[in-house]
Amino acid sequence: MTLHHDEIPVDESLVRTLLKAQRPEWADLPLSVAGSGTDNTMFRLGDDLLVRLPRTPDKELSVRKEREWLPRLAPRLTVAVPEPVYAGTPTPAFPLTWSVYRWIDGVEPGPDTVREWAAFGTDLAAFVRDLHSTDLLGATRTGDLSGYRGGDLRPCDQSVSGYFEDCRGTVGATLDVQTLERLWRDALTLPGPSGPHVWLHSDLKPTNLLVQDGRLHAVIDFGGLSVGFPDAEHATVWDLPAQARQAYWDSLDLDDLTWTRARAWAIAVGISGLAYYWSTYPAFVAECQARLRAILDDAATR
Q1: Do 189 and 243 sit in the same domain of this protein?
Q2: Boundary-marking domain end, from 43, 71, 102
Q3: DSSP secondary structure of 112-157
Q4: Is 7 exposed, middle or buried (0-12, 13-18, 19+ CB in 10 A)?
Q5: Among residues 108, 103, 273, 105, which one has the least CA distance to residue 206?
Q6: Do 252 and 282 share a structural domain?
Q7: Which backbone phi and psi does 176 adopt, to 5 degrees?
Q8: Under DSSP, is residue 96 helix (H, G, I), strand (E, B) or coil?
Q9: Separation of CA 196 from chain center
Q10: What is the per-residue pLDDT across 89-126, written as a single tens digit (0 to 9) for each?
Q11: What pLDDT digit, counting tens, does each position of 187-218 carry?
Q12: How far apart are CA 283 and CA 296, in angstroms?
């Protein structure tokens, strides 16, 4: 399944070809699809490895970024994060950098895997606190560490406004786009973020979290790693049940301004995903719709 106009298709045969050319000792290990996101395709390799390949040329920098920073951040964090073990080089068949990581056992958080949602929200808050308090190690908000989710909402308004219009033509009356747009515009009138820049994961949605024994065990996919203001980091809590969301808020003691800006970021990412992937990625569209409905339900009670 391709999602982007400039995507490079990947299948098991291609991965085998890359391994035979660059890591022949791994080429005959069992290989199976291990999931695919909007930016990467993954294959489990044997029992202990994961092959990760960017879908498009612009995501190649994310692969390089993970290899540079994850080994330096991992010792400072209290949950498991991906461990790069090999840097794959471009070939004529796949002209992008790719990576092999150590496999991390775990399952996606959900009603059948999380023992208690309030504890899970507290666990996620603890990870965010650790990451945001980690020394920047000389990193600054420049180059590939200057992701838009670490900045102000206002520069995104033009594109987000266009996505609201697109969604009116697709979801119709099944989603209250008008209220979502009002919440977005209300947030634009607030003071911008302030304070020191911090490390940001930038995409802490459930598919990037792994659970073991009912508790948060690992955080994966640091392709969006950046340095900036933390507001957007909190946006994905609307992908979790209300108990987890409340425990996360309480644990980090977030103020109302930060929470409102985080909600606006959640709306922006949800509405853009809904518009961009409407006809290509139904599962991700469903995730976006669930997030936006959670935002509407939450806003109606506050």
Answers
A1: yes
A2: 102
A3: TT-S-HHHHHHHHHHHHHHHHHS--TT--S-GGG--GGGS-SGGGH
A4: middle
A5: 108
A6: yes
A7: -80, 75
A8: coil
A9: 22
A10: 999 999 999 999 999 999 999 999 999 999 999 999 99
A11: 999 999 989 999 999 999 999 999 999 999 99
A12: 20
How many separate domains does the chain show? 2
Instruction: With cut-offs at 50, 70 and 90, classify the pLDDT of residue 36.
Output: confident
- Domain span holding position 22: 12-102
Residue type at 262?
Answer: A
Q: Residue 256 carries which side chain, given as an amino acid letter?
A: D
**Amino acid, single-letter form, for residue 144:** D
**Are 99 and 63 within 8 A, CB to CB?**
yes
Rounded CA separation 129/77 (Å): 10
- Choosing from 102, 129, 149, the residue where a domain stops is 102
13-41: b (≥16 Cβ within 10 Å) or e: ebbbebbeebbeebbeeebeeeebbbbbb
In a domain, 280, yes or no: yes
Q: Tokens 């199976």 label which residue?
A: 32
